[in-house]
Design brief:
heterodimer; A: Rossmann fold; 6-stranded mixed sheet; 10 strands; B: about 350 residues; mainly alpha; two-stranded antiparallel sheet; two-stranded antiparallel ribbon; 4 strands; about 75% helix
């Protein structure tokens, strides 16, 4: 459903991605791992239209989408849970969720379904989004992305800055989401979390794919080498 | 962990906003009855206040909510004014009917204008809008059918078309000005409470984040720009309907139609509906007291602006509202602490 071919990305003169080839099938959960600065977030920014790319370098459901404006890409069905949550401080929890549905795509996800998935958010629906704990904010960010009724969900560093017990809770809900057939791309520094949910994994290092495979078929050494370049 | 967090309730309406509603109804009744209570001089002043109130409310929507700091709104004031004269003169339209038509035409001309100025951002946008307004002024000065550089007057026959009696005429223009001001207020209020308001708030919080959740930032801003242009155009038509005379320098004055309007909005409190109302009233009080002092008066305005910026950067209303948690128009989401956080 999503395919990148020779995806490159630049920050000014600095080249951050050197020809990334990634292929995702409908219903898959892909993990993209890599150290800080490996290009994981850049990869997501390039797919979601936040960084300019060549049109044919990204195709989604058979359609070239590279470099389209970010809001258009959301309307085509790619939603992102951004790194650091990025909730809107002036909006309440419920309003943060509602604005996720701004593109008016239809699908299974509604406010009620999000509250079913994260009951705590319903209790706190009228609180300002930023008054919540880190884990609850992450739930709002996930809910906001789901409200767009995407066919592909991108998650950037879900575990960042959260306590281990909260991380487990967040990943449990992610498993629920994938169980319903959602295609998910998880970008993580936390290798163990990522490998536990993924059916396939890509490892990035300095803007290049250094390893690709099924978590069950990869050895610790292979991953370590691909991750650290040791 | 959750128990340690304070409990909040977020509400839009506040006690102040409910008292405000009651006071508002009384005030509205008084305002509607005003032509029966006072003479023409007061009515004229009131018309001017309503016109400025509308312009300030629109500039606030544009700059305070959509982040489009325009220094060229006089383009739409002047264009609206000239359209009124053109419609009355060339098509024989009744001046009152010409008002909304002038608004529509102003919105139409704002489309190509936006095409030019939307390529610019921030300070460049501000200067760009000013340059465009100057182009408008110079262009209208070339149209000899509209009086060229020296301008023209509205024909007496057309003026009598509103009402034969001068007192009644002034009253009608007053009611229209009141209606336009209320309409502008309602437009801003409803816009902010709609899906668009949610998007505008998100854009104000963070443009990239808003775009990433599917908000089309440019389109949202364009809609605001066009709505503001239309209402500004109607107001311009109204201003020159009262003056009965129009000339390029007066119609496209950056001082009268943008600088004063920015002053009112910023002094009152930008990004709040109440701000322009407070700012307009403060401006007119200052003018009534000090306008006779000429250059000193303008320096005083500058001093007041600097002082407010230093002491209360959120404007007078922002200062009062933060201090006493006041809100007359419940569009902002208010967070109320229900109980103290348990340690």
């Amino acid at each position: 459903m999503l395919e990148t071919t020779g995806l490159t990305a630049f920050y000014g003169d600095f080249q951050a991605l050197f020809g990334i080839d990634v292929r995702m099938q409908q219903g898959e959960t892909i993990a993209m791992i890599g150290a800080n600065g490996a290009g994981k977030s850049t990869f997501l920014r390039a797919i979601t239209g936040l960084l300019p790319t060549r049109r044919e370098q990204v195709t989604f459901e058979g359609r070239p989408i590279g470099g389209l404006p970010a809001d258009v890409i959301v309307k085509l069905g790619i939603a992102m849970v951004p790194e650091g949550r990025r909730l809107f401080p002036s909006l309440t929890v419920e309003e943060n969720l509602l604005i996720g549905a701004y593109g008016r795509r239809t699908g299974p996800w509604s406010l009620d379904r999000i509250y079913q998935l994260f009951p705590v958010l319903e209790e706190r629906r009228s609180s300002p989004g930023t008054a919540l704990s880190g884990g609850q904010q992450q739930m709002v960010a996930i809910g906001r992305a789901l409200m767009a009724n995407p066919s592909l969900l991108l998650c950037d560093e879900l575990s960042l800055g959260l306590a281990p017990i909260v991380i487990r809770e967040i990943y449990r809900s992610l498993a629920q989401i994938t169980a319903e057939g959602m295609t998910v791309l998880v970008v993580e520094q936390d290798i163990n979390q990522a490998l536990a949910v993924a059916s396939r994994v890509y490892c990035l290092q300095e803007g290049r794919v250094t390893l690709e495979g099924r978590p069950t078929e990869l050895t610790r050494e292979q991953i370590g080498r691909a991750y650290f370049g040791a | 962990m959750i128990a340690a967090l304070p409990t909040y309730r977020v509400e839009r309406g506040t006690t102040a906003s409910r008292i405000g509603t009651i006071l508002g109804v009384v005030l509205l009744a008084l305002l509607i009855a005003l032509p029966f209570l006072t003479g023409r001089a007061t009515l004229r002043l009131a018309i001017e206040i309503f016109a400025y109130l509308t312009l300030a409310q629109m500039w606030n929507l544009l700059a305070g909510y959509a982040g489009l700091v325009s220094v060229g709104q006089q383009a739409f004031v002047g264009f609206g004014g000239y359209m009124l004269f053109a419609l009355v003169l060339f098509l024989g339209l009744n001046p009152l009917l010409a008002l909304p038509v002038a608004g529509v035409l102003t919105a139409a001309v704002a489309v190509p204008t936006a095409f030019v100025v939307f390529r610019l951002r921030g300070a460049y946008f501000a200067i760009g809008t000013w340059v465009v307004a100057e182009v408008y002024r110079l262009s209208f000065a070339q149209v000899s059918a509209l009086g060229g550089g020296s301008g023209m007057s509205l024909p007496a026959a057309a003026v009598r078309g509103i009402a034969a009696d001068a007192q009644l005429r002034e009253s009608i223009i007053y009611w229209v000005a009141l209606a336009v001001a209320l309409l502008a207020l309602a437009t801003v209020y409803l816009l902010l409470r709609s899906r668009w308001g949610l998007a505008l708030t998100a854009i104000r919080d963070s443009e990239p984040a808003a775009e990433s959740v599917g908000v089309d930032n440019d389109r949202t801003k364009l809609v605001v720009y066009l709505v503001v242009a239309a209402v500004t155009g109607v107001t311009g038509a109204l201003i020159f309907l009262q003056k009965l005379r129009i000339a390029p320098d007066a119609a496209f004055s950056v001082n009268d139609w943008t600088a004063f309007v920015i002053f009112m909005t910023v002094i009152g409190g930008i990004g709040r509906i109440e701000g322009p109302i407070v700012g307009t009233l403060v401006f007119f009080v200052l003018r009534a007291l000090f306008a006779d002092y000429g250059a000193w008066y303008l320096m005083l305005l500058g001093l007041v602006a600097v002082a407010v910026m230093l002491v209360a950067p959120k404007g007078l209303w922002g200062y009062v509202a933060d201090r006493f948690a006041l809100q007359l128009f419940p569009v902002q989401r208010r967070v109320r602490l229900l109980e103290e956080p348990r340690a």
